[in-house]
Amino acid sequence: MKKKSLIKNEKAQVLGLPMYLIIIMIVAIAVIAAVLFMMPRGTKQMSAVVTEYYLISEEASDMAELEFGTYTVEVKVTSNDENADPIYGAYVTLTGAGASGSDDTNEQGVAEIDVSPVLGDNEKDAYMKLEVRASGYEDKVIEKAVHVHREI
């Protein structure tokens, strides 16, 4: 009687292994894409407004780099429906001009963010970007929400 060998063609089995891995990866990517597609997105619109046109301005000194004082920027976040209801718990960030700050909105939809901008020795102007995120709402981004200016 002949003994059967379980491993007759080792090269074919080794060559087949990467193909199985590629198929498994393609199926996994398709499943992940389907799950991401089904995730709910924010459907409501919101409005985020710096309570007034905000200009941070100071006179330059002899220092090579001017650090500004600390300023509190107030941001009002409301829904864009007919009632313009305030949005409680929205996460608000303000970044730029070498500074950043963040806060959550209160019951009135107001966030107060303290920032201390910095301009380099050759910079005269900079802008700070405002980003607002709230559950159930599309994210709001305002690229030039706060103007930082140095008087030379």
What general outline do the C-alpha atoms trace?
A: flat
State the major sheet: 5 strands, mixed
SSE arrangement, N to C: HEEEEEEEEEE
E-strand count: 10
Using the coordinates above, name the CATH class of the largest domain.
Mainly Beta
| The CATH homologous superfamily of the largest domain | Immunoglobulins
Q: If strands are numbered along the chain, what order do they take across the biggest sheet? A: 2-10-9-5-6
Oligomer: single chain
Strand fraction band? 35-45%
Low-confidence stretches: none
- CATH architecture descriptor name of the largest domain: Sandwich
Helix content: 10-25%
Tags for this model:
152 residues, flat, alpha+beta, three-stranded antiparallel β-sheet, Immunoglobulin-like, five-stranded mixed β-sheet, 2 domains
Detailed description of the structure:
The mean pLDDT is 77. The radius of gyration is 28 Å and the shape is flat. The strands form three sheets. A five-stranded mixed β-sheet has the order 2-10-9-5-6, with no helix packed on it. Strands 1-4-7 form a three-stranded antiparallel β-sheet, with no helix packed on it. It has a two-stranded antiparallel sheet with strand order 3-8. 19% of the residues lie in helices and 41% in strands. The protein is an alpha+beta fold.
